[in-house]
Every structure is written in structure tokens, then in C-alpha cells.
Amino acid sequence: MIFVTVGTQLAFDRMVGAVDNWAAISGDDVFAQVGPTDIHFNHIRQSTFLEPKDFDHYFNAASLVIAHAGMGSILTAMSYGKQIIIMPRKADLGEHRNDHQLATARSFVAHAGVSVVWDEDELIALLHRIDRAAIEQDLVQISGTAPEPFIRKLRELINS
Amino acid sequence: MKQKKLLAVASAGGHWVQLNRMIPAFEGHRLHWISTVPGLETKVQNGTFTAVRDASMWDKPGLLVMALQVAWRVLLFRPDVVVTTGAAPGFFAILFGRLLGAKTIWVDSVANAEELSLAGRKAKNWATHWLTQWPELAREEGPHYIGSVL
User: Fold this and answer.
1) Are A22 and A13 in contact (CB under 8 A)?
2) Interchain CB contact of B110 with A (< 8 Å)
């Protein structure tokens, strides 16, 4: 199952539409959390918003996650050890208020477990190209908590 | 070590995930959490939880409601320390927390790799500790860098 998420605030129809097109070709089972949109996608299951426990459920069940370039999605995928493809929203297309997702995406280029695509064509091309079996071998699990040196310094600030 | 009242604040989504990665640093303190999605209460294992209205910096009426909700919670809880990863509810928690004499710690989201967030820039004057998660963005006068949740 492929899990698609666009975060809690805004729809991202350009990305979800591309995955819908992919599902039509590939027959993949896709569940997408699509945010506030009027579009009904034809080839995937969709939900506007997911309760946190349902979000966890789909994350767990997924063999691949496709998401907007939001830190919540990226960090959650990394802590579940799920391969994630991220695609940044663009402000000039009205998809976000600014282009910080482009910066996030740039900072995750060449990061293990995270694949960056810059637009819907690249997303489809990557889905054609990737070897799902190899991906499941290449899981990168990160700890559920921040690195110890950061925790220690933050604790000092709190306790001092 | 004296137990403190620690108010942990983050919008739902990436801000919330990052704040939760800091939990080991909160050990030994009495926690209250604030976020913007009521269902997140089920994810809180230690401490109490309040949901406030979600609003961006561009939704002024929504912001006003959120600010009042955060102010009320800060007044009731009287935190010794406020820790937040943003965004808007974190700013208000820093503002009201500082006005009541709390230590206030702003940790700008790791999503802001190239410039500080808008709420983060606004938090500058009210944060006792004003932090970025990117060494490239750190300056002597702040924001400072002590590491990242990644």
C-alpha cells in the first residue's frame, strides 16, 4: 500500500493528482490524506484529514510514503523506517504561503531514505523507476528522540 | 533538581513531531502540552493537554481567538519554562509566558533551513533562549545553535 499525505493544513492536488494517475496505470493500492479539496480522485482511496491514530495506522501499513515536503511527514517516515518521496509545494502556484518547502526539500537531497522530486513529472518518473523490493531492503530507521547532545544541552537550558 | 512546570507548545504536524522528539529533555518536570488538533491528546503520555484553535499569521480573527486561548492556559498553568517549536501558538506562549516571568525557549523548526520562520523572527524579543536548528543560520546575537532534533 502506498500512503500519501499532504499535511494538516492545505490541499496539494497537483501531487495527489499525479499519484492518482500513477494508480490508474499501475493498479497500486493507494490511500491519500488529501486535505481540504473539492476533487474526488478516481483511482485512490482518499480522506480529507486523519485522526492521529488513523494516521499512525496508515503509516505503519504503507510500503512507501509520498508526501509534501513537510517536516512532520519526513520525520514520521524516518522514525517508522519508511521510504518517503517528498515533493515541495510552490508558493507561486498558491500551494503555500512561502517557499520554505523548497528549502526543506533541498536539505534532504542525498539523505538516505528520502527521495526528493521537484514536480509531478519527476514523481511519476520516479515511481516508474523505483524497485519496490529494493526499497523495502533499504529502510532507514531513526530514533524516536533527538540526538543525545541536543537533549543534554536543552535539558541544561531548562534546568538552569 | 527542583521540579518545574513546563509548558510544551507546538502546532500539529511537523512542529508537534519535533517537539515530541525533545521529550527526554523534559524529564522530571510537570508537563502541560498545547497543540492545534484535539486528537493529539491520545499521543500525550506524560502530562496534560489542551487544544487551541489553529490559525496562521494571515488569519487575524483566528489568531486573536488562539492568542486568548493560549493566554488563558498560560495564566492557569503558570509555567516556569515554556518550550516551543512554533508556530503561531508557540509565539503566543512565549509572549505570555515571558510576561509572567517564565523562562522561554524558542526552537525554530528544522524545516526552516534557509531563513528563520516568521513566527520565529517575531519571537526574538520574547524568548530567553532563541534557537535555530541550522548552524548556518546561527549568529552571535542569536538565533543560537545547540543542535537539532534530527
Assistant:
1) no
2) yes
